[in-house]
Amino acid sequence: MAFAQIIGTTRYVFPDLKTLLARATPFRSGDALAGVAAESAEERIAAQRALADLPLIHFLSESVIPYEVDEVTRLIQDSHDKLAFSPIRSLTIGGLRDWLLSDAADSVALAALTPGLTPEMVAAVSKIMRAADLISVAAKCVNITRFRNSIGLAGRLSIRLQPNHPTDDPRGIAAATLDGLLLGAGDAVIGVNPATDNVEAVLRILDMLERLRLAYDIPTQSCVLAHVTTTMRAMDLGAPVDLVFQSIGGTEGVNRSFGVDLALLQEAHEQALSLKRGSLGQNVMYFETGQGSALSADAHHGVDQQTLEARAYAVARRFSPLLVNSVVGFIGPEYLFDGKQILRAGLEDHFCGKLLGLPMGVDVCYTNHAEADQDDMDALLTCLATAGVTYVMGVPGADDVMLAYQSTSFHDGLYARAALGKRPAPEFEAWMARMGIGSSSDAIPARLSPALIGLG
Amino acid sequence: MTTPSKWRDLRRFTDARIALGRAGNALPTAAHLDFQEAHARARDAVWSSLDVARLEAEVAPLGLPVERVTSQAEERRRFLLRPDLGRRLAENTALPQAPGSVALVVADGLCASGVQQQAPALLSVLVPALGKAGFTPGPIIIAQQARVALGDDVAEAVQAAAVVMLIGERPGLSATDSMGLYITWAAKRGSNDAMRNCISNIRPGGLTADFAAAKALWLLVEARKLGATGVALKDEMPSHYRLE
What we know:
The complex is a heterodimer. Chain A is an alpha/beta fold. Chain A is 43% helix and 11% strand. In chain A, helix 4 (71-78) crosses helix 16 (305-317), helix 12 (228-236) runs parallel beside helix 14 and helix 16 packs parallel to helix 17 (339-355). Chain A is globular, with a radius of gyration of 22 Å. By secondary structure, chain B is of the alpha/beta class. Chain B has a single domain, classed as Rossmann fold (3-Layer(aba) Sandwich), CATH 3.40.50. Helices cover 34% and strands 16% of the residues of chain B. Chain B is built from seven helices and six strands; from the N terminus they run H-H-E-H-H-E-H-E-H-E-E-E-H. Chain B has helices spanning 29-46, 52-59, 76-81, 83-86, 112-132, 150-158, 209-226; strands spanning 66-70, 102-107, 137-144, 162-168, 179-185, 196-202. In chain B, strand 2 (102-107), helix 5 and strand 3 form a beta-alpha-beta unit. In chain B, helix 5 crosses helix 7 (209-226). The longest helix of chain B has 21 residues, at 112-132. Chain B is globular. Classes of the chains: A alpha/beta, B alpha/beta.
């Protein structure tokens, strides 16, 4: 179906929904690279006006990628909950924006609405929202998940402790982990990106993290962010796997480029559930996403990168994950050029994930060839913390020495909690108090003696 | 009573930025400025450009023809925004033909200063070794605003049997002088990364130029037998392998 909008004396025509969505997207380099961005500011506002007038029910009849060729589209359509959708059935995208911002849309109403929303509806409304709108609505969404602690409670901000090491040296990883624990990080997960996706190496790190967690009796979970098939092999071998990680995207093609499909994720999910390792809950999956991945894999179908990112969240929510985060600034300047584009994308991703019911975190990050710096990250972190982000990363000194990019530091986590009055997950907070964590003294509390984790 | 462990003693286990101390919830000034300095160096490295005349002078003793080319990305910002243009030779680029040779490309990539520092030393070892192993070293092509796949266009233009691409790697905070080396057998436009072998992290503190040259030669010898590089060619270079 074609859409038209008159601005002044020009009539803008958009041949289909995916073109309308792409032209309505605030500018970013990846959409220009894909050749789908609006060619002028006026074309963009024309698309935004046409989108605002579009009834939500239209999204149930037109897909951005055909049902027949894409299993993510099939998942989205087949799992749409018409009963949950009924309260907003008569609204347009513009009407949805107004309703989301209204007092009627409280935490309870938003949670009830979640299964009735499709990723494309959520992406569409985000395109006509300002940063403040994205923050205000996300802050009302409360999505709680549990494994060994409770993540996403109101007033809480969790941190993924990311103690990566360039050669996966167990003592190097352990030292960085202890550094993070001493600075209050680790309640979301202690999650290591392995330098090689090799089963033996992954087993070594899993065993080391398990021994460390037990030695300090930490109410948290660990994860080695290997490919899902590597983690499945590790589970076959009896390894202590808490969470199964995988990078995912919003089309069948990009997922294939990651070496996964829905059936494989389902198999991994069931295998992890069968281990029954969670003490408080059984959210056992951890997913990472990021705008631009589908274009990078040449699997974007002419759809803008932000809409595809929202579709990745449909894949994520199918598996009730403990944690999901966009790695917003990692992909590079050809997709998100500068601090302004990274800021906007980070807030969009967080908003869309939260509205779709996910425990949404963000890797507030950048590479050295992007036009961004620490000030840009401080701005995004502060906005996200205001928006109630579920968790952010904690990397020693903000410098990931394995992945060669900059993320948020343990110190940044302390800053965000203090500035916004947020606290760690309650079980972790109580553990920190028991262990004597919080002092800035150079002496390590006896209960966290490095000798207990092999750092004699 | 034992002496409490010192936080700063953890530093001996990793080069990560741990035990930095605190100024309130922030970094102490010295640690903050250390980070800013590392980022400043990385930023300058990304935006650095090749000193082509100096490179030409440094590789002249090898006695090979040297050519200058540019990609279709005419300047740095465009290069960063349009990776597709960085993979294509500029229109109307004329290169001398050297059928069956191993073309040698020195490209700025994401860090001109890295390749500027590492490439001459590597070529001074690799070029004589190629000759001894029965290869014909091709022209040396100095390429600006270039991505890895630009080597495919070069290989087609000179009718090379293979292309060796020396290219500056994206700077991190701890390394701003790193070079990568990519080998593609029978390279042509449209060759993809699964058809290449890569040696990464060539720099002081990483892989030495001598080691990287030896590995490149070993891979080329194996590629000649297989007629292919990439996933079909596993790096099984014996640890005792050395160039003569």
